[in-house]
Amino acid sequence: MTGELNMNRSCYTARPFGGAFTQKFSGIFSPVSWLSGIPILMYHEVAERDEVDELARWTQRGYILVREDFDRQMAFLAAEGFQSVSLNDLYNWSQGQASLPPKPVVITFDDGFAGNYRHAFPILQRHGFGAAFFVVTNRIDEPFMMRWSELSEMHRQGMEIESHTANHPLLSTLTKERTRDEFVGSKRMLEDKLGGATRFLSLPNGDSNPFYVPVVKAAGYLGGCGSQFGFNTPSTDHFFWRRIAVKHEIGFDGFRDLLLRRRSTMLYHAAKAAAKTAVARTLGKKTYDRLYNLVFGVQEQDKSKQQ
Description:
Helix 10 crosses helix 11 (285-296). Helix 6 links the parallel strand 6 and strand 7 (160-163). The protein has a single domain, classed as TIM Barrel, CATH 3.20.20. The chain has helices spanning 19-25, 52-55, 67-79, 87-94, 115-127, 148-156, 176-194, 212-219, 251-259, 263-283, 285-296, and strands spanning 40-43, 45-47, 64-66, 83-84, 104-111, 132-135, 160-163, 200-202, 223-229, 241-245. The chain contains eleven helices and ten strands. The strands form two sheets. Strands 1, 4, 5, 6, 7, 8, 9 and 10 form an eight-stranded parallel beta sheet that branches. A two-stranded parallel ribbon has the order 2-3. It has 307 residues and is of the alpha/beta class.
């Protein structure tokens, strides 16, 4: 489990991916820390095959992994000698206060879907991995979502249960006061229900606003995950940690090649991420997300706006 890792075993040192490759794309992807450093994997839901169609009404179909595929990915990580580290371990390392094992990986889940407990949790345990689960607190105990009792069990078993806001809004549409309500409210609820401190968060849809960092710092958060593609070095802003979105369509070969940092796969995913960012910036994040949900039949993600 994550809490059982010996963080003093050896020191991880980030290595650049490649000189010419880095220089060629440094003007597009800045800074270039996405080429090296610690991977944070971003999952959403793990399900049985016959559950996918119904779940696709609640989240993007591409974010739903079939249980056997997730199991194969975790088996690969274990066979390759990767060790899961917690967000707290990553933060301490980024501050120069701890070392990491030779092949560290952070495993995260967004939203709090029920399959995180039913399917992902036992697979993680079987392979000896810990993970961080970012939950939307006002959705807990709802259909298709995890229950407080399940979160409590996972927390006792060493999993990190962290904030994904109270309602999953787009931060760019919020005032400072509403931003504070979302992060402070979810933090208080998690701490009241589970005990311990909530120190980390995930940004819904990777979206942000000018109030986000000062608000969450004042609330006691130490760091946060976005959705920008890349790896993390000590110089990466720890309130905008980069992640690798693990989607169904990348397949096992794509997953393997990303973790082994094969050049063609890295280039493809970096270019794809840059194109998506450019489209979202042109349309505006609110319009982009609403169009996506409309096209793919996904329900409104902001709990406070659901009827």
